[in-house]
Write a structure and sequence with these properties.
Layout: H1 9-22, H2 33-42, H3 47-62, H4 81-95, H5 108-121, H6 127-137
Helix pairs in contact: 1-2, 4-5
Length: about 140
Amino acid sequence: MSEPRLFPDSTNELLVSVYLRQGRTLDDLPYTPEFDALCDAMGVTGKPQRAEIFHHLHNLRKASRLPRLGRAAEKPPRIDPSHEAMLAGLVEQALGKLSLRDQLPYTDAFDQLVVTFNSRAGLSLSPYAVWRIIAKLAK
């Protein structure tokens, strides 16, 4: 017996179509105006729904139903290797493993991680910048 679908196929097709119009890779998409536009087009409003949409896009990618868009538009910010290690440790503290990073965007845990990281590192990186560094670290 197959798992129940969170989104019907017609919604998946719409989501993929809207994703393609944004022109950003999945790892480069969270916390951007393009992700906001995608959510607006899908009628998504709150943070939990944004997290669900992002997670669903990842599921579509894993199922080879989300076309790859090439390289990200921007490179992740460069930070000191000690700050990278600190950030990886914070992600592992929050999730257990860095490989589970895709569960973070648009959650309270991610918001707290950004605040904690910036405070400990003496930086003021945006959620987008922190996410891009995490995505790079996990590759």
